[in-house]
Amino acid sequence: MGDGINDASALHTADVGISVDTAVDVAKEAADIVLLEKDLKVLVEGVKEGRKTFANTLKYVLMATSSNFGKCSAWRAHLFSCRFYLVAQADSPDQSNDGFSGNDNSL
After folding, report:
1. 3-state SS of the chain?
2. What angle do CA 14, 15, 18 make, to 5 degrees?
3. Is the pTM above the cut of 0.85?
């Protein structure tokens, strides 16, 4: 925490630099947080709100990944079964009319 020119380098290198509204411009620019009130309860409320936001974000990410995991598993099962279907179709002995050769003798 600092408010003078000599505190600017310490505010810049700190993990979280805190300055006050009445500090010099260099200290306010170097700080991560500028307190507008003369009370540190603002920081406590900010930490509580940040923890709530982090918990809600984590819940959403876990819900979204679990939902997508089920979709991916179903898609993999579908691709796996399609591969066997295509292999079985290619190995069938009756390949005289594949629909692409143009020799349609059904008329």
Report:
1. CCCCHHHHHHHHHCCCCEEECCCCHHHHHHCCEEECCCCCHHHHHHHHHHHHHHHHHHHHHHHHHHHHHHHHHHHHHHHHHHHHHHHHHHCCCCCCCCCCCCCCCCC
2. 70
3. no
Residue 15's identity, in one-letter code, is D
Six token digits for residue 52: 């709530």
Range from 6-10, 49-53, 70-74 that averages highest in pLDDT: 49-53
- Hey, what are 92's tokens? 């069938």
Neighbouring CB atoms inside 10 A of 23's CB total: 23
How many angstroms separate the Cα of 101 from the Cα of each of 78, 96, 97, 98, 105? 29, 9, 7, 7, 11
Q: What is the pLDDT of residue 3?
A: 83
pLDDT score, position 91: 56
pLDDT the model gives residue 5: 83
Question: How far apart (Å, rounded) are the C-alpha atoms in residues 18 and 91?
Answer: 73
